[in-house]
Amino acid sequence: MIDLEGPVLVTGTDTGVGKTVVTAALASLLLSRGNSVEVIKIAQTGDENDAAEITRLCGVRARALTAYPDPLAPFSAARRSGLPLLELEDVVEAASDVQSDVVLLEGAGGLLVQLGAGGWTARDLASELGCPAVVVARAGLGTLNHTALTLEALTRRVIEAAVVIGAWPAEPGLAELENLKDLPGPRLGRIPEGAAALEPEEFRRRAPGWFDLSESPDSVLDQVTGEASLLITSSGTALRMKKLMALTLGVFSAIGGFVDLGDIVASGVVGARYGLGLTWAVVLGVIGICVFAEMSGRIAAVSGTPVYGLIRDKLGPGAALVNLIASFAVTLLSLTAQIGGIALVISLASHIPHIVWVIPVGIGLWLVIWRVKFDNMERAFGLSGLTIAVFAVALWWLDPDWGALGQQVASVAPPAGEPLPTYLFYAIVLFAAAMTPYAVFFFSSGGVEEGWKPSDLRTQRLNVMLGFPLGGLLSVGIAAAAATVLLPKGVDVKTLDQVVQPAILAFGAAGLAVALFGFFAATVGAALECGLSCGYAMAQYFGWPWGKRVAPKRGARFHLTVGLCLLVGVLVVQTGVDPIQVTEYSLVFTAVALPLTYLPVLVAANDPDYAGEHVNGRLSNGLGIAVLAVIVIAAAAAIPLMILTRMGA
What we know:
Layout: E1 6-12, H1 19-32, E2 37-41, E3 44-45, H2 50-58, E4 61-64, E5 67-68, H3 74-81, H4 88-97, E6 102-106, H5 122-129, E7 133-137, H6 143-155, E8 161-168, H7 174-182, E9 187-192, H8 200-206, H9 226-258, H10 261-274, H11 279-303, H12 307-350, H13 354-371, H14 374-384, H15 390-398, H16 402-410, H17 420-434, H18 437-449, H19 457-485, H20 496-499, H21 501-542, H22 556-574, H23 579-604, H24 608-611, H25 618-644
Parallel strand pairs: 1-6, 1-7, 2-4, 2-6, 3-5, 7-8, 8-9
Helix pairs in contact: 1-2, 4-5, 6-9, 9-14, 9-19, 10-17, 10-19, 10-23, 11-17, 11-18, 11-19, 11-23, 11-25, 12-13, 12-18, 12-21, 12-22, 12-23, 13-22, 14-21, 15-19, 15-21, 17-23, 17-25, 18-21, 19-21, 21-22, 23-25
């Protein structure tokens, strides 16, 4: 699919196909994803004022470069009125001078209508700017030929394009339904007929969900032949490869990002004390995060609304503010723990006290957030985090009593001599470690930043359903290694160097190096996610421009929030507080905050305004309600059990 960045041409297969409404809807979509947008109507003819209509519908600045009184093609209208013709160079300069993230250039009439001096067309403009084109097409008879011809004309200039149906009827007939199957070209969406009659606020809220064609073909059909057909087919092959890479990298990023310092510490502590007797809590947590991450990702793809945006919409400003304070505090506490964890890992590798590394770690995290691209950041640290699998390899190498481990997995009661309250406390800790709110904040906001669409739902679901369970297996691997090596010795895990002992026993210095590298990558990835999630939550509540891709000048408050949170985390760890203790407290308070995060997600996933035709089915609702019941129980029991057991002592 085309990239909606920089200049983007909005053209049509004909006049009156809905270019103005599509332009306003695209602007609304981009605004919902944190982009700044400006619209230029290249030439206005007749009595209508398309620029004013766009501003009315979506609220962005829109202007026409020139206007002619007669309702004709611009070249003819200019000649008839005696007014000067537009120069192509002037339009290119106007588009290039715009400082917004995206400038939408709405044409007049069809693609090859003459717009100015020398007979230049919208295709010439797109070729000169090197920008993609959104082709607005009709839904009814005749559209297949018109759309194929328009795409062929664009392909001959090697201009990327996607198709939007400008007015999809509420009750489509046979022709419209069959055209929907056969319409050539990659499809970006369809706008409901009569959308311009909506109130502006309603238009802006619904517009992101209109770009929802999941049936997007990757190439123009056989109507386009010769060179054009070859070029478009090649483009489709590249698109399929891009989707495959997105799936592969997304899955591995989810695996690496699942295991943060909280999971590492909790898995080591529990494995050394209960063996694999609390595996059921990890499984429950993995099911829970899969259910709600899938819902939040689906909402982000369909409506362009991230989790905190829908929390404010569903709870209202007052209740959402309470949620913001609780979730923000927990995420900031998690960020502090991750910063301390990174310093501890470096300390284990360098034998220099961790306190020395805290400030360099904070600066390094800030530089990564500031300078490294979003997808590169996720891929690098997500894939590197996979090296935590060294614990699973070490377990196989040590050849434990597999039967005994299997009996531990099957157990759902505390071992003899272990008090039930402490057992339940650690069950809640493991569950909370898997269900951290920042995971869905980051997952859904990242989806908006990466431009997920309904056509990406299959990839998004595979990322969730493969990535998070495999990440859970990494946590179980740490616990199993601890159960094999530390449990028989009665080790009470308090430090990271105790957690890595199984890897050292199996592989010596090499095992230590690989384990520490995995811990480093996982905690850095988690710190980046926590830092950005603090900015996401604050900006989405107050309606600030947000996103890693938003220019610092425009997104100053978002970037300032992220920077200040990193500074607070650094200062707290610099006081000498034990990062492991910070981690333990963060997991307890995470459990308390879980209902505030996940209830609005479940409600929104059943709302067509957010999920469109992709609302929850019976299975999703059944699982969501069951997991939410567990969340409520865990939230209610977390602090009493913490006090009763003296933090699991």
